[in-house]
Amino acid sequence: MAKKKSLFECQACGFQSPRWLGKCTNCGEWDSMVELNSEQIKFIEESKKSSFNKIVKATPITEIMQDDIDRFSSGSRELDLVLGGGIVSGSLTLIGGSPGIGKSTLLLKIAGNLAKMNRGVLYVSGEESAGQIKLRANRLDVNYDNLFLLAEINLQYIMQEINSKNYNFVVIDSIQTLYSEETSSAPGSVTQVRTITFELMRLAKSLDIPIFIIGHITKDGSIAGPRVLEHMVDTVLYFEGDLNSELRLLRGFKNRFGSTNEVGIFEMSKSGLLDAKSVAGKFFSRDKLSSGSALTVIMEGSRPIIIEIQALVAEAYGHPKRSSTGFDNNRLNMLLALLEKKLDLPLGTYDVFVNISGGIKINEPSADLAIIASILSSYRDRELSSKTIFLGEVSLTGDIREVTALNQRLKEIKTQGFTKAVIPNRPLEETTIKCYIADEVSKVVEWM
Ligand SMILES: Nc1ncnc2c1ncn2[C@@H]1O[C@H](COP(=O)(O)OP(=O)(O)OP(=O)(O)O)[C@@H](O)[C@H]1O
Ligand SMILES: [Mg+2]
Looking at the domain 71-275, which fold is it? Predict the structure, then answer.
């Protein structure tokens, strides 16, 4: 009797092996090999055979006509900004975010905006009943005839519905709750998520409709499911924010049709998520600063935003703790080591905590100087002037390096009524802000 052929495929990278492997030898993922069934093996073998007979010919790039990207507005200035100028027809977008952050609220609001503009919209929910969504729709005031709800988890039924009407926009809430009859694994499993995403991608391209998928995130903040999910879709956005504050940030992580520099800023209100009209002044307080607080200005995409950094330096009982929210912990350790070495501060016997207000996560090094200023302020228990902004990247040698878009940042500092700035080098353009040059970490103390 002929031995049954077996073939295993890695769910993370697609690597195939005739043996089961605990760890994929291609991508290093653990426990990712899944056995393919006889039909899948047959399909692979046949496609291999047919590719032997096929003659393919490459085309010179000069003879290829470019695809036209057709965009339309989502009705939200902030979402359009993050997407690079609006929703692209036929694109598949994945939005991830922590539980309760407002993913369903945002997409139902966008669905409502589009339905109001006479576009046919389908909102599919595998998590909530239609009645529950209606409750949210009432709150968001999006009751339009063109907005259709479908509470369903079977992908085949959902695809039937999408094919049956002329929808212009589809929302899937969420990918982890759907299941496809084509695979036998449970909803939310790697195989299911991958199969469903692939089917939805095919549907979006063939019908030329944009599909937005909501994805749950894991404890470490990445979208639950295989990493290939992020590779498969056109755009990946993350919805972030502090649940205690009303501000929410929508950040581009990947975009096949635009840059990922821009950040959308929304406010959660009783009537849903609104585009933040003005973000200036929302991430710092104008009152007198307490000791341990310092101000800086970061660039979120093309927007300069003034933020407050808070540090707490307290004598340690036992092993000193270092922890930061919204700032890289390794970078904090590096700055503390530098302070110990250059300023002779005995920080090894202190706990140090750093927090960035408003749920902002700092992704650029320009805030280093302000972090140092806030730590020094807390250590010495001396308040900093509430009219001074600190700007600069600190290097391992203690030099303070230039920051990008200095003039744009100084303009924002001026608009917000600040008068002084501690910066690494003289600005190229004239400014009425009093600039103190701190090119070395020890100089910061002079200007505090
Ligand atoms: N009546 C209300 N007024 C103000 N805010 C509300 C109101 N009802 C709900 N919210 C806000 O909406 C948030 C829930 O939003 P939503 O259900 O869109 O989140 P989600 O990211 O889809 O969550 P999940 O991961 O559970 O699906 C709540 O955390 C709350 O902040
Ligand atoms: Mg939800």
Answer: Rossmann fold (3.40.50)
All CATH 3.30.230.10 domain ranges in the chain, comma separated: 293-447
Atom of ligand 1 nearest to the CA of 108: 18
Q: Say if CB 163 and CB 209 are below 8 A apart.
A: no
The mean pLDDT value of the chain amounts to 88
Work out the average pLDDT over 253-271: 87
Ligand 2 ion: Cβ-proximal residues, 5 Å cutoff? 104
286 lines ligand 1 (CB under 6 A): no
Query: Is the distance from the beta carbon of residue 99 to the nearest atom of ligand 1 less than 6 Å?
Result: yes
Q: What is the mean pLDDT of residues 149-162?
A: 94
Segment 65-98, tens digit of pLDDT: 888 888 999 999 999 999 999 999 999 999 998 8
d(CA 187, CA 33): 18
Query: Could you tell me which CATH class the domain 293-447 is placed in?
Result: alpha beta
Instruction: Outline which parts of the chain fall under CATH 3.40.50.300.
Output: 71-275
**Ligand 1: which residue has its CA nearest to atom 25?**
99
- Please classify residue 120 by burial: count the beta carbons closer than 10 Å to its beta carbon, then call 0-12 exposed, 13-18 middle and 19+ buried: middle
Segment among 74-83, 140-149, 178-187 with least mean pLDDT: 178-187
User: Would you say the CB of residue 250 lies under 6 angstroms from ligand 1?
Assistant: no
Instruction: Return the closest-CA partner of residue 400 out of 360, 429, 371, 375.
Output: 371
Structure tokens at 50: 């047919």
What atom of ligand 1 comes closest to residue 105's alpha carbon?
A: 18
Check if 219 has its Cβ closer than 6 Å to any atom of ligand 1: no
Closest ligand to the CA of 102: 1
Each residue's pLDDT tens digit, 400-423: 998 988 988 999 999 888 999 999
Do 245 and 359 touch, CB atoms closer than 8 A? yes
